[in-house]
Design a protein that fits this description.
Radius of gyration: 23 Å
Bound molecules: pyridoxal-5'-phosphate
Number of helices: 11
Number of strands: 21
């Protein structure tokens, strides 16, 4: 949804917190009534702003938050967010100090880490089985059980959870997802019989939508709560509402005669008389250079092609003749205007990447402006 240009800056990411709330509520409906939803707000809430996203997710029905870095947990606490936080990433000794000081749960996969938690005065740990992702966690189920038993037996350490992460949940039809699910269930269910307090969690957004058997006690949802589709398809088809809109405006309009060019390297040379509209947004804002001659922009409710090289601070758009744009017009890079929409998924396809990278790639120079369905917050 296009919100009126309310802040006079070159580029803005407007984030609809009501959409995040609704996405969380929509994903909750996939779960059993007693299933918990952990909102993943790492990487500054996938570019949306971690603190604002966390608050919106909690308002929408999340009861846990997850981040990857200890510093991210500390930032949430500094913003007076009191919900349980899981720090999912690997932690150096210094980062472990920081995570525990933020009263966050941490992830363990060897016994020395449990001892390190105890040595720092204790904390809550979730044991991670590497059921096939091949990154963090132990692959050895017996070793994972030993880590869990050590946590349960260590004074000051609370065994809070058992977890894994899927490698192919978003690749529908592949068999590996089912193999990981079986491996995790075979390890975690007996562990929970021995330790009934622990929460089992495995599913990301794709796994949650794909298979109820992967939900266990809690799901960890990132991309879907921002209204991005975990399968790279149209989010609206899964009733997910994109929360972020990226816009700029027409700062200059130039008449080009045939043979005249725009931008570095003259990668756009006019074949006919036309006009270029210059938008003051570029790769220094997170609009990737791979979109050179390879994107559309919405101006006046129409799709206009981005032409020429994306530079650090500007892009140019072919506005045609007579020009379909005027100086001061709002220009949408991601979002909707009139009947047209440009999704992060479309941008990702053009860049041969995933929607996650598109929103995470928005840089700090772009102010995030929060609203609820158009009402400033
Ligand atoms: C361990 C872990 N769990 C959950 C998630 C959330 O995944 P998604 O954004 O696909 O829902 C992530 C994100 O990559 C993750 O690393």
């Amino acid at each position: 949804m296009a919100v009126q240009q309310d802040v006079a800056v070159r580029a803005i990411a407007r984030v609809n917190l009501a959409a995040i709330e609704r996405n969380v509520a929509r994903m909750r409906r996939e779960l059993r009534a007693d299933g918990a939803l952990c909102a993943v707000v790492k990487a500054d809430g996938y570019g949306h702003g971690a603190v604002a996203a966390a608050r919106a997710a909690l308002a929408g029905g999340a009861t846990w938050l997850a981040v990857v870095a200890a510093q991210e947990a500390a930032a949430l606490r500094a913003a007076r967010i009191h919900a349980p936080i899981l720090v999912m990433g690997a932690l150096s000794p210094h980062e472990l100090d920081l995570a525990l000081a933020a009263d966050a749960d941490v992830v363990a996969w060897d016994e020395s880490f449990v001892a390190a938690v105890a040595a720092r005065g204790g904390g809550s740990v979730h044991v991670k089985l590497d059921s096939g992702m091949g990154r963090l966690g132990t692959r050895d189920a017996a070793a994972a059980t030993r880590v869990a038993e050590a946590a349960a037996a260590t004074d000051g350490v609370f065994l809070a959870g058992a977890m894994t992460h899927f490698a192919t949940a978003d690749e529908r039809g592949d068999a590996f997802f089912g193999e990981q699910l079986e491996r995790f269930a075979a390890w975690a269910q007996p562990l929970r019989s021995a330790h009934p307090q622990i929460a089992l969690h495995a599913a990301n957004s794709a796994a949650t939508l794909r298979d109820g058997a992967a939900h266990f006690d809690m799901v960890r949802l990132g991309v879907s709560i921002y209204g991005l589709d975990p399968f790279g398809e149209d989010p609206l088809a899964r009733e997910l509402e994109p929360a972020l809109e990226l816009s700029s405006y027409v700062a200059a309009l130039k008449a080009l005669a045939p043979g005249e060019s725009a931008g570095y390297g003259r990668r756009f040379v006019a074949e006919r008389a036309t006009h270029t509209a210059t938008l003051p947004i570029g790769y220094g804002d997170g609009v990737r250079r791979g979109l050179t001659n390879n994107a559309d922009v919405l101006i006046g409710g129409r799709r206009l092609p981005l032409v020429g090289t994306v530079s650090m601070d500007n892009v140019t758009v072919d506005a045609g003749a007579p020009p379909a744009a005027a100086c001061g017009d709002e220009a949408i890079m991601i979002g909707a205007q009139g009947d047209e929409r440009i999704t992060a998924e479309e941008v990702a396809r053009r860049l041969e990447t995933i929607n996650y990278e598109v929103t995470c790639g928005l840089l700090a120079r772009v102010p995030r402006v929060y609203h609820r369905d158009g009402e400033p917050t």
